[in-house]
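Field reference: sequence -> structure
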Amino acid sequence: MLSPSRIRRAAALAPAATLLTALVSCTSQPDPLTTPCGVVVDGSGSGDATEKGFDAEAKLKSTLLKFLKKEECGTVKFAPITRSSQSSSCRVEEVDLDPPYRKNVDQESQRRKARLTAAARSMEELECARTQGGSDVWGALDRIGEAMPPDGPRAKLLVVSDFAQADPEFTLSRADLSSREQRKKVIDSLVKERGLPGIKGMDVYPVGLGMQYDARPSEAENFRAFWTEVLEGRAEARVHNTYE
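Structure field:
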């Protein structure tokens, strides 16, 4: 039988024990990651590492993990930029970045491992895309947009590309982008032939856009204006320069 003093000590400790249990239960399971994310990788020749060009692999490696963590991505899907991005055979599996919670397992460690898996998958996609050549950015944007769930949290898309559209039917570098009116004509023609990329309302994070024009500021300005008018003005996406 417990003595009165032990009963008093036990009663005094009970609230503290209850509080500790509550704290453990509240902090043991982090908030779920629910944002659907997409990653587009540029396999075109302009993405090879050169003195003047855009190094797609380096940009991908330097931005992907930061993007997945900062944007709290719960899942990530991939799309390649090739000569025909929509029909490209380059396909890697989606990655679940928020594995099911299990007791006695460090959830943050599991998430880090999942992000590393995503990084490896992105490199698989890039390597495949490089075997097919071409640069159908428009089709890649549409493909990744279609892969995002239609409902739920707003999708976030990391597009690692210089955006140098060059597929068998259309090469952007040959188009006149010197004025808003000329750019409108080019966009109207592309929309008529291909429709708009289905990325309405999504957050788009370009990495490398227009890098090939760094030595030609006026051309770079027109090139960026073209894609701004496509992405924000026509496709109604939200463009962010967070990871440039």
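Note: The radius of gyration is 24 Å.
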